[in-house]
Design a protein that fits this description.
Number of strands: 7
CATH class of the largest domain: Alpha Beta
Number of domains: 2
Strand content: 5-15%
Largest sheet: 7 strands, mixed
Helix content: 40-55%
CATH superfamily of the largest domain: Vaccinia Virus protein VP39
Radius of gyration: 21 Å
Number of helices: 13
Structural class: alpha/beta
Length: 317
């Protein structure tokens, strides 16, 4: 089978996401091609996995890869925030939950949906075809100010206003329909010294459009809250992120759940009756080794945070 994506931080994930019991359930929230799930299925013969992915095409790849594991593996073609909101497993609770965020090398290399500026493809960027708005829609229809704000907010791009201005000017000559067209507009809009930095000048704009098209940050915030409620006490949750926006959400959420008291600091006595829901197992995010970044360059920006759940915040029904 032609697998194009190598799971990041694989050994680190296995060393920190340790099941409390051998027959635990792992929910792999971003199944992709199934690399992380396969690692757990191989290491723990009695463990079962539920794999989620919004992209049916990449899930088909994972299904073939993981078919030898039979009914130990279940698949749900859905967004992880919707899965945890509508939790379909009844009283069956996971002992492990893994979020490996971002998109797979498969999406860049094989999806044909315009995730990469290195290929000239239609500007789509939807991970799930049912979404109504594409990157092409945004680039050709959003007002200049809204485009600039989007690129700055989700791409942390310092030249967002220049890029948005150039996009609006270019689309006045005709639709911007392909990644090649957009990449050229961005290249020509930024200062010459910015074109030859550590990353391609289009990287942040492409990231911003993808995040906006798929609603990635809002989905993560919603999913973390509901996933932690469903995780059984003693269970562990890991979040692997690839940029500061995702990492900030995970860090803030875990820190909040690690607090015993949420009263204002000026109050002399605790009135909230709060308690710590998790303990943080990674005081600093886990980063890939130098060896891994050489073997798998896309892993260089990855970072992982892991917590263990101490108790339920409210009764699980």
């Amino acid at each position: 089978m032609d697998i194009v994506h190598y799971s990041v931080l694989k050994e680190e994930v296995l060393s920190l996401l340790v099941p409390a019991r051998p027959d635990a359930l792992l929910i792999d929230c971003t199944l992709g091609e199934g690399g992380h799930s396969e690692s757990f299925l191989q290491k723990y013969p009695d463990l079962k996995v539920v794999g989620l992915d919004a992209d049916s095409a990449i899930m088909d790849v994972a299904k073939k890869r993981l078919s030898p594991y039979g009914d130990r593996m279940r698949f749900y073609n859905t967004w992880f925030n919707l899965f945890f909101r509508d939790y379909p497993l009844g009283g069956e609770r996971p002992g492990l939950i893994l979020f490996d965020l971002g998109i797979s090398v498969y999406h860049y290399e094989k999806s044909g949906r315009g995730f990469s500026f290195r290929k000239d493809e239609v500007l789509d960027m939807r991970l799930e075809k049912g979404l109504e708005i594409t990157a092409m829609d945004m680039v050709n229809n959003y007002p200049e100010e809204e485009l600039a704000d989007l690129i700055y907010k989700y791409g942390e791009e310092r030249y967002s206003r220049r890029i948005a201005r150039a996009i609006v000017r270019e689309r006045g000559n005709g639709l911007i329909e392909t990644t090649g067209q957009l990449a050229e507009v961005i290249w020509n809009s930024v200062p010459p010294d910015y074109r030859h930095g550590r990353i391609h000048p289009g990287t942040r704009t492409f990231q911003a459009l993808r995040i906006a098209v798929n609603g990635e940050l809002a989905r993560l915030e919603s999913a973390l809250e509901n996933a932690l409620k469903i995780l059984e006490p003693g269970g562990r949750m890991a979040v692997i992120s690839f940029h500061s926006l995702e990492d900030r959400i995970a860090k803030r959420f875990f820190q909040e759940k690690n607090k015993a008291c949420t009263c204002p600091p000026e109050w002399p006595v605790c009135k909230c009756g709060g308690r710590r829901i998790v303990t943080i197992l990674t005081k600093k995010p886990v980063r890939p080794t130098e060896e891994e970044t050489k073997r798998n360059p896309p892993s260089r920006s990855s970072r992982m945070r892991v917590v263990e759940k101490l108790e339920d915040e409210e009764e699980f029904v």
